[in-house]
Structures are given as structure tokens and as C-alpha cells.
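Dear colleague,

Thank you for sharing your sequence with our group. We've completed the structure prediction you requested, and as agreed, I am returning the results in plain text so they can be pasted directly into your records. Please verify that the sequence below matches your submission; if there's any discrepancy, let me know and we will rerun it promptly.
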Amino acid sequence: MNVAQKTVAVTGAGNGIGRTLTLHLLDKGARVACIDKDEEGLHETEMEAGSLAVRFSCHALDITENKAIPALINQILHNHGCIDGLINNAGVIQPFTTVKDIEMKDIERVMNINFYGTVNMTRAFLPHLLTRKEAHIVNVCSIGGFVPVP
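Please find the predicted C-alpha cells below.
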């Protein structure tokens, strides 16, 4: 997809890969809705965007808060008029320990962000993406997804 003049929502846009994706999309002419629970990180991404930030919107949201996602979509539509893509980038890595030593709260945190956050965002955005002539969903996975600790 040529991203010029398209609106792409990027989760985890407050740092790391999400910030890099955001800046690259802006450089290619996209409008970007940046989503992250770290509001300070979002503003740092916006500052790095410089003059390209005119096509940028910040949305502080924890993707595990499923009930907050419809309001997020309304904000993106209000700011940009449409949604052409979703990049599910937000994620955390599990503690590097064995299953017998990992706390259940840590397992639940990883699953809530990496799995359910991605599923919830995809399900919420999909009806809007299906109205577009061309739309994409991209799911980012770290090496932790390919080489897990036993």
C-alpha cells in the first residue's frame, strides 16, 4: 500500500519500533494516529516528527482497556477523517524465567497486552478498515514470539 494520504493507527508509538514506524510513515506522507499508554513518550515522538507532526495525532490509551477503544476510534476519525491501516506494535516481553518460576500476574500481563490487546484493537478497527478500498493490518512480533523461554 502506498501510504501517502492514508491514515494509519500505530500502537506502542511512544518509543522503540512504534516511534520509528511512526516517523517513517510520516516521512512517506501518511497521517498517523499514535497510540500508547505513555503520554510523555507520545509527546517525544511528536517532537521528533518536527514539521511532519501536522499529520500526527496523539492518543493516550492502554490497549488492554477494551471499553476505551470505541472512543479512540471516534477521536481518530474526527482528527483524520478515515482509517486505512492498523499496526499492532504495542507489546511487552515475558520475564526470562521458566514457567514454574513465573508469577501468574506476569503471564496475565503479557497475554493481556500482546494477545488480547492485539485482538481487541483488530476487532474494533476492522469494521472501519473494511469500508476502505484498500486497507491493511500489520501485527509486529518480537524475537520473544519465535524463541520463547521454556
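Summary note from our side: The mean pLDDT is 93.

Kind regards,
the structure core
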